[in-house]
Design goal:
Number of helices: 27
Distance between the termini: 92 Å
Helix content: 55-70%
CATH class of the largest domain: Mainly Alpha
Largest sheet: 6 strands, mixed
Structural class: mainly alpha
Number of domains: 3
Shape: elongated
Strand order of the largest sheet: 6-5-3-8-4-7
Number of strands: 10
Length: 678
């Protein structure tokens, strides 16, 4: 049982993260917009008794089945019959007909008779047409197209004649002749007549099938916001078809909502896992701080839930949700990298719950980036208001550009959306300041607003430091000036560094006389103590400072400066003194508890604190001595690996050295030594 409990405590931080992620997913799932049921009953010709109905999204309505059938019937009636030519020697055909009419030898000796002349005239008229073999009677009234190689020629009604209708044609042309002659001529024609074309059944069927397959129901597009029915209006068949299509969309969404929720859960779990993986790799202090993780997740949930609730009940106002408070609040308490990742996670989650997913995601991502770049200083409401106005302009520009890309003209712009952007900015100004103060109290974190309050040297803690350890107080002010100058040069958070420097040595109030800057009487109590005990007292000021800071509710960001300003360094003076006395010593007994600095700001304080304290040992400092002192101290910190976990590069450390050298020379009023005039 004891082992099981110890395992639980060992993995408690991982268990908390799992609970945090799963709890967040359940909250998001609970507020995820439900697919609504279609609440209307209607029929063609009935009055619409409900409020005006507008299309909630773009959708299309298929052409009625009756219209499709009519178009297919029209295709069946008008599909052409394709024929192909048959080579025929028409002169030979006529000679055989003429021979059967009057006898070949007689005709050759005495020329054509009246009968043969009539036959030639009818023959010529008949063969001006294509005489078609095998053409079904059902296609007689259809257009006829002649295939000639790769060409298709459309024949008019006088350009073709089915073989089955030749008899009627001959009778109509020979009706004035005596019955005997008419019968003889027609018999000669039927005996010798050759068709000049034949019906191409395979090609006709293929063409007909292609024409039928090409028929697709026509679609009428209804765009979001388009009115579908008005109160008191009598519904037409077209309106009923639109309502039927909308009803089917709602029914389909209801059937698929379980799978939709599963997909949503998978996406959210993946996003949260990637976020935690990133924090573990690149922001380990935040990853190991459950309070910090909780704050980030609460902000993601806050904006996502606001978007989901608005989409469910007031979908038109979804752009009025002040989404940009997410990246700004996260940046206020942590840094821009974490805020950017939180922005991406929040935008993807929120976009999954709105109708216009692409539009919403694009607009909010761009506005969030603008907020991260412009809202760096939230110490006054006026600065916050100006930053918000810049973000509102970005909202408007990106929305306009996207709608022009999508629609190709200005018709797609809804000018009411610009008012929603302005409302979103105003709500952000109202909420942001209050939420920051609330989160500070809840999680013990510090924003720029509270940091400004901590700068006041008349507050209780700093006033006690000035009274009980005046030398330490002056040292802290000097370190704050040096550290702030370095932070400004390196682009770090100068306000945070200055506040951290003012409070980094408050632990010395417990035993002020054991620190040289407070020894005004010339008496050093360490002279009567063994080196190990002296080192213990010196090291103890870090732990005492952390304890005092927590009693006075200082934010964790400031406590980080107290615990890291010596890192895991040695108390060299007493360590060397113990070695000189040939004691059996363990270096760990003379080492600060740490940890080493893990950010630019805490590393800057370590450098400024060490250099400022060491500079007091210079009796009459020169520029060369100061340069040597700064190089020695910071190079030793590098060699010992105290700056390894910070974000400082070697180039930035070199810049920090230059700032320290310049500031210390100004503090000690060093001037160039001019030669005496002879």
């Amino acid at each position: 049982m004891k082992n099981r409990l110890s395992d639980i405590f060992r993995y408690s931080t991982h268990i908390y993260k799992a609970v945090l992620v799963l709890g967040s997913v359940l909250v998001l799932l609970y507020f995820y917009p439900q697919r609504e049921r279609f609440p209307y009953t209607y029929s063609a010709g009935q009055l619409w008794h409900y409020p005006d109905l507008y299309a909630p999204m773009d959708f299309s309505v298929d052409e009625p089945a009756v219209s499709v059938r009519k178009r297919k019937d029209s295709i069946r009636k008008t599909t052409p019959a394709f024929i192909r030519e048959i080579p025929v020697d028409t002169q030979a055909v006529f000679r055989r007909i003429a021979g059967d009419i009057g006898g070949g030898s007689f005709w050759e000796l005495f020329g054509e008779t009246t009968t043969t002349q009539t036959a030639r005239k009818v023959f010529s008229e008949l063969y001006r047409r294509q005489i078609i073999r095998g053409m079904p009677d059902s296609l007689v009234q259809h257009p006829v197209w002649l295939r000639r190689g790769n060409q298709v020629l459309m024949l008019d009604s006088a350009g073709y004649l089915p073989l089955g209708r030749v008899k009627r044609f001959l009778e109509s042309r020979l009706n004035k002749l005596p019955p005997g002659e008419r019968s003889r001529i027609m018999a000669a024609f039927f005996k010798n007549l050759k068709p000049t074309a034949e019906y191409d059944d395979a090609y006709t069927r293929k063409y007909f099938k292609t024409a039928l397959d090409a028929i697709r129901p026509a679609k009428k597009i209804y765009y979001k916001g388009e009115r579908l029915a008005s109160t008191g209006e009598r519904l037409t068949a077209t309106q009923v078809r639109a309502l039927d299509a909308l009803k089917q969309i709602y029914a389909r969404d209801q059937r698929n909502f379980g799978w939709i929720r599963l997909g949503f859960v998978l996406i959210v779990l993946t996003l949260f896992a990637l976020f935690l993986f990133y924090l573990n790799l690149y922001e380990e202090p935040i990853y190991n701080n459950n309070a910090a993780l909780t704050l980030i997740f609460i902000n993601i949930l806050l904006v996502s839930v606001m978007v989901f609730v608005t989409q469910r009940y007031w979908p038109f106002y979804v752009f009025a949700v002040p989404f940009i408070i997410l990246p700004v609040i996260v940046q206020t308490f942590f840094n821009r990298r974490v805020a950017l990742f939180a922005l991406v996670v929040g935008v993807v989650i929120a976009s999954l719950g709105v109708t216009e997913t692409t539009t919403y995601g694009l607009v909010q991502t761009t506005a969030g980036l603008a907020a991260l770049l412009s809202m760096r200083n939230l110490t006054t409401r006026s600065e916050m208001f100006l930053s918000i106005m810049r973000v509102v302009i970005v909202y408007a520009v990106v929305y306009t550009g996207y709608m022009l890309v999508r629609q190709g003209d200005w018709a797609g712009l809804d000018w009411r959306v610009f008012l929603l952007f302005l409302l979103s900015g105003i709500l952000a100004v109202v909420l942001m300041h209050e939420l920051i103060l609330l989160f500070e109290k809840m999680f013990g974190l510090a924003s720029d607003v509270s940091l400004l309050e901590l700068l006041n040297t008349n507050n209780k803690l700093l006033r006690n430091l000035a009274e009980k350890a005046p030398g330490t107080f002056q040292h802290s002010i000097q370190v704050a000036n040096l550290a702030e100058a370095i932070a400004n040069e390196l682009g770090a958070n100068a306000l945070l560094v200055r506040v951290g420097a003012l409070y980094h040595d408050i632990g010395k109030m417990k035993n002020p006389k054991y620190f040289t800057e407070n020894q005004t009487s010339g008496i050093n109590p360490h002279e009567n103590l063994p080196p190990r005990e002296s080192a213990h007292i010196i090291i103890r000021h870090v732990l005492d400072g952390i304890e005092m800071a927590r009693k006075n509710n200082l934010p964790e960001r400031i406590i980080d400066f107290i615990r890291t300003h010596h890192g895991r360094g040695l108390v060299y003076y007493f360590y060397n003194k113990a070695k000189e006395q040939n004691e059996d010593i363990n270096p760990e007994d003379f080492r600060y508890p740490g940890p080493d600095p893990f950010s630019k700001e805490t590393a800057i304080l370590m450098m400024a604190d060490s250099v400022e304290a060491a500079s007091k040992s210079l009796a009459l400092p020169t520029a060369e001595q100061i340069d040597t002192l700064v190089d020695q101290i910071i190079d030793r910190q590098l060699q010992e690996g105290l700056l390894m976990n910070s974000d400082l590069s070697l180039k930035e450390i070199s810049k920090a050295k230059k700032v320290l050298k310049s500031k210390l020379k100004n503090i000690y009023h060093l001037r160039v030594a001019y030669p005496e005039m002879k």
